[in-house]
Amino acid sequence: MARAEQVLPLSGFLGAARAKGWLVDTDDDELIGVLRAVLVLPPHRQDIGEQRYPAVLDRLIDSVAAGLTKE
User: Fold this and answer.
1) What is the domain count for the chain?
2) Where does the source fall among the domains of life (predicted)?
3) CB under 8 Å to 21, separation ≥6 — which residues?
4) CA neighbor of 23 nearest in space, from 35, 9, 38, 39
């Protein structure tokens, strides 16, 4: 489970971004968990396919960013 206390610099950044109204209203552990989930993709590069991997990673990051930020 993601623990915001373990990644204090990121937690501070998330708090500041939330205070500015840039992020959806959820707790740091959830946000950090989502960001960590993106980091589990690289070991599956070959499973996804070398040619397709960059596009899949970009799409995933765009989707996560859109889902976590406010307009």
Assistant:
1) 1
2) Bacteria
3) 70
4) 35
The token pair that represents 31 in the structure block: 């946000």
53 neighbors 19 (Cβ within 8 angstroms): no
Q: What is the pLDDT of residues 30-46, one digit of tens each?
A: 888 888 889 899 999 99
Domain extent, residue 36, equals 4-68
CA angle 57-59-63, nearest 5°? 115
CA dist., res. 56 & res. 62, Å (int): 10
pTM: 0.71
DSSP 2-71: --GGGGHHHHHHHHHHHHTT-B-S--HHHHHHHHHHHHTSGGGHHHH-TTTHHHHHHHHHHHHHHHHB--
Two tokens, residue 52: 């397709």
